[in-house]
Amino acid sequence: MSERTMISSAIEADLMQLVALHRLLDFALSQSLEGNTDDRILEGVVILTRMIGRKVRRLADKLLAGESSCCD
Fold first, then answer.
1. Mind giving me the DSSP string for 25-60?
2. How much is the pTM?
């Protein structure tokens, strides 16, 4: 009884972008923890954190809108 969820190519692209942004954030944080901290890395961490938050909100809105339209 496997249920497959179909997503649009736009949502798939958003998910891939989210994964890429998360990997960049992970790299920036690991550089910071290794002592390679300067203002550029910390600025990058802040920017990436904000971008990821916006992308997650937009993606959640798309998914919830799609879910509600399919159930009406």
1. HHHHHHHHHTT---HHHHHHHHHHHHHHHHHHHHHH
2. 0.74
